[in-house]
Specification:
The protein contains ten helices and no strands. It has 340 residues and is mostly helical. Helix 6 runs antiparallel to helix 9, helix 8 runs parallel beside helix 10 and helix 9 packs antiparallel against helix 10.
Length: 340
Amino acid sequence: MNWTPEALKSFENLTSKIAAELVFAQPGKDEGLIPVYSLLNELNESFPEVPVLTEALDGLLAILGTHLDEARPFDRPLLDRLGAFTIWVDNAFTAFSAGQTPPSFEPVSTPASAAADSEEAEPAPGGDSAEEPFREFDCLLQLNLSENSELMPEFYAEAVDHLGQTEAAVLQLEQNPEDTDAINSIFRSFHTIKGVAGFLGLIPINRLSHEVESLLDLVRNGQRSLDGTVIDVVLEAKDVLSQLVSQVGLAIQDGIEPSEIVPVSGLMRRVVLAAASTPAPADSAPETTLPPTPPPETAAGPEATETPSTAPVVPFPQAAAPATPPPATPPPPPPPTTPP
């Protein structure tokens, strides 16, 4: 298949949505079961020409379909398989981006007794159950220095440099949250660390960087506002990655293999929640009801200060209309004249 930038972007968006849906998935619960099935099916239909992907998806879809048909919730074996798939598909994305074919997906196997126990177990109370999908990433770094003797020192030097750039860019954002160059710089740093860590099999570094990268991608595309929550989780991720990268440095310089687990599950959950949330808009100011405007005062004339009279007002008599004169009586005729 020809992996165009558009195809890679679509692939990454779908796999990020699958990982986000799995954040709250718990054994014995069915929340998210249908969305995960739908997204996996969409991924399968979108890339039918990638055999290594369809082979991995066919098995997952068959198991999820059985759960849906029998109205069964998530169980531990299924969640472990889905968790392993999210790791594999992220490494597959790195391989596809480089024009390579990733190895086939190999799901984790869970003993039958452990599976039975997990189906009947109640979710742990409190916040621990919400971090369950990421618990598998709380693991020791496996460096395999004998196989990666050349690449590991390069990764260490590059990671230290990118983490330093990230801290400087965050300081710029605190001064100017609209600085797109700083946002893009942080995104590129986490993207680079994620890709190389995935290639080297540094699972905690790869997975944490992936979640932060997805959050920053939303910010730089205008789908998520840059606020204090985003800055806080980015800085915390930078600190956690610095601890993990320091373990790589000790192994390279002093031959001390990692012996302490640096937890990442709680932070990964907070990053995913930050990506899924939208900052609340600023509260609008309450409407102020102004008192009615008093009528304008009339300028007082000299008479205005006088006390009005309480005497009854007598109407001015009106003149009667003149009577119509009677018709004039005609004068009597003159007497007749007597001849002499």
